[in-house]
Write a structure and sequence with these properties.
It holds the Pfam family TetR_N. The protein is mainly α and about 220 residues long. It has one domain: Tetracycline Repressor, domain 2 (Orthogonal Bundle). Helix content is about 80%, strand content about 0%. The chain starts with a helix and ends with a helix.
Amino acid sequence: MAEPDSLSRQSGALIRDRLIEAAVHEFGEQGYDRARVQDIARRAGLSTGAIYGNFRNKADLLAEAVDRGLAAAARKLVEALDRGAASTDLLKMVATDLSDPRRRTWAPLVSEALAAARRDDEVARRVHAALRRAEAKLTELVELAQQDGSLAPEVDSAACARLVLCVSLGVDVLTALDFEGPDRKAWTALVHRLFAGLASAAVRTATAARRSAGGRSGRSSG
């Protein structure tokens, strides 16, 4: 049987989760400035007191929602690595993941957080910290790709991570604006081509050899 303190912690975590989930939708639909604390609480099926019992203010709730979302994305990458996914494939996934239905929910929140960060110092501090952590995780992926020979060692890992982060955030902002995107296959092909240009000499040589072999096979079968 669980101890009372343990149950209380579990209950508190569930309440925070419900509030954050409600805030993500409310901020996305109403915008940060128009979203009201009482509406977030109502959406979560809780009282306004539940919000102030868990968060200092609306800015804290917004920052926590962004922080939670980026942390979840980072965990997704780590879990994929643990399953044996190649680090370069994960970097490409971050840049090409346009079809994830969760992006429609997440993108407006990111857009609102970036705008609010320009007006609210607390939001700015928390958003900056969350983005730094996300960029650090991307930098680790770049360095892993360099260690296994997928990416060229002369590629600056921090600069490459920033490029991937900028592309991902840019996609979020445009998605929040319902800005119609390019053909998904064309976009994915372009990103893969960009990463091919960053590949190590060994990978480029192996890729060229495979293409050459494929070309010869095609000609002989014809």
